[in-house]
Amino acid sequence: MNLFGKKSYVSIDGGERSRKNDKRHKKAEPSIPDGMWIKCNTCKAIIYKKEVTEYKLCPNCDAHFRMSPAERIAVTCDEGSFQELDVKMRPKNPMDYPDYEEVVSKAQKKSGIREAVVTGECKIHGQAVVLAIMDSHFMMGSMGSVVGEKVTRAVEYATKKRLPIIIFTTSGGARMQEGIISLMQMAKVSEALGRHDEAGLLYVTVLTDPTTGGVTASFAMLGDIILSEPKALIGFAGQRVIQGTIHQQLPEGFQRAEFQLEHGFVDRIVHREKLRDELGMILRLHNSSESEGME
Amino acid sequence: MSDAMKSVAIARMIERPNTKQFISAIFQDFLEFHGDRLFADDGAVVGGIASLDGIAVTVIGIQKGHTLDENVACNFGSPNPEGYRKALRLMKQAEKFHRPVITFINTAGAFCGIGAEERGQGEAIARNLMEMSRLKTPIISIFIGEGGSGGALALAVGDYVWMLEHGMYSVLSPEGFASILWRDSSRVAEAAALMKMTARDLLQNEVIDRMFLEPKEGLENNLEFTTTEIKKALLASIPQLMQEELDVLLENRYQRFRKFGEFME
């Protein structure tokens, strides 16, 4: 499925030897495809892979490449603090969609994770927080039962433990193979967030490229504070769908983070290298007011 | 034609009775209110207050037309963000005055356009989902025709969700499903059957709680056949929901949506 102009990194093949070499590195850098050289899809520059740091930025144009949850945890959480929740949850086939099991197992092999979201508890700058991190490498981060259930449980866990929650979103929308049950996940996550909100707790969304469809129309847009990475595609409808409906050219920069900021739907656009510090600062500013107010 | 395709065709018929017809068949003294107080009045969403045999209620629904002119005025039943925000405004008003809310759903989906994105279609739908899940007054949602995805769900987080026999409700249209997943738009019928989008399918997996039969001669020829039953059901359910402790009402609504999902651990 290539619904949302998914970025694919063209690998410049270095022949048999470099491919072998790569197998060793693959675990550490799953989002970078095979080959010593990659092409940035934004500026089209050919980049030497070792120049890409743990922040996964284009050394030439600063484009923010898509990250896996493991990479996100490494640059966000205090070292060794992340404790994963619901590790073993994996999908069933509620609609009896033909070959769904096969599609899922292929995605699991390709991404190395069981589903399109990883949830857990960690510390950022020493402060406890619940995290949910979506992964666009797993079936385009689509939301089915597992994503809905894991995110809902993470929210409910945060409510119960009186903790803030940060959700890193990236998604093509609902998991169509799970039909109407995937649509119901939007209501399920939103109502759990409603209770977290009523409990007076902090919810921060970090929108990353791309965040669209049912995830935008539910938890992505419900943060008390909504941050976004630069140039991330954020919207409800896919661009091709809009073009097919209105038969007009879409304006330059349409549905990018900067467009959403301009239209009032994003609080701040934050460069990935500064994100951890900003999140730490936000948590600190909410911690002090809560302890004063509550205790 | 498969049962699923038959229902899809019936749900989309231009003659199919629309929200305003259901409102006048079921309620008295309907007063339509306009606008979201933020940007505009969206003709795709109608709402206001009415009497259900003496019970004051708030009624909100997605409107489709029977003619081209009517459909232009209501954007073919595809709301913009201001439509969802009008609905939310009226729901909050209902909460304030302890009126139950009845919503009628009939939409191919939320509108997909530049303006809709500029004004936050995603935010508008998301907000409705969260606010409806904790609205401190009963909500009953009735699918009378098409129920297209998030744009339908944004008015359907109810204590009860009901549907007409030939209503439908799905994550996307069968056409979209076939063309996206199979890249073959000719497999619409197959998609419709697979998607379990008919009232009978949805009753089975508890997405809806109740189905209302339609007359053999077609709903457009005998609306009363079905609205009489809907009215009876409303008159039975609303007093019962109004009597419930607020905590119980909200907990039941929470659990109604909390239960959806199939997975292994």
Task: Give a description of the structure.
The complex is a heterodimer of chains A (295) and B (265). Chain A starts with 10 loop residues before the first strand and ends with a helix. By secondary structure, chain A is of the alpha/beta class. Chain A is globular. In chain A, the strands form 2 sheets. In chain A, strands 4-6-7-8-9-10-11 form a 7-stranded mixed β-sheet, with helices on both faces. Chain A has a 3-stranded antiparallel β-sheet with strand order 1-2-3, with no helix packed on it. Helices cover 37% and strands 17% of the residues of chain A. Residues 13-30 and 289-295 of chain A have low confidence and may be disordered. Chain A folds into 2 domains: 1-65, no CATH class; 67-294, 2-enoyl-CoA Hydratase, Chain A, domain 1 (Alpha-Beta Complex). Chain A is built from 9 helices and 11 strands. With 265 residues, chain B is α/β, with parallel strands linked by helices. Chain B has one domain: 2-enoyl-CoA Hydratase, Chain A, domain 1, CATH 3.90.226.10. In chain B, 45% of the residues lie in helices and 18% in strands. Chain B contains 12 helices and 8 strands. In chain B, strands 1-2-3-4-5-6-7 form a 7-stranded mixed β-sheet, sandwiched between helices. In chain B, strand 2 and strand 3 (55-62) form a beta hairpin. In chain B, helix 1 crosses helix 9. Chain B is globular and about 50 Å long. The termini of chain B are far apart.
Pattern of helices and strands of chain B:
HHEEEHHEHHEHEHHHEHHE
Q: Give the overall form of chain B.
A: globular
Outline type of chain A? globular
Domain module count of chain A: 2
Give me the Rg of chain A, rounded: 19 Å
* Strand order across the largest sheet of chain A: 4-6-7-8-9-10-11
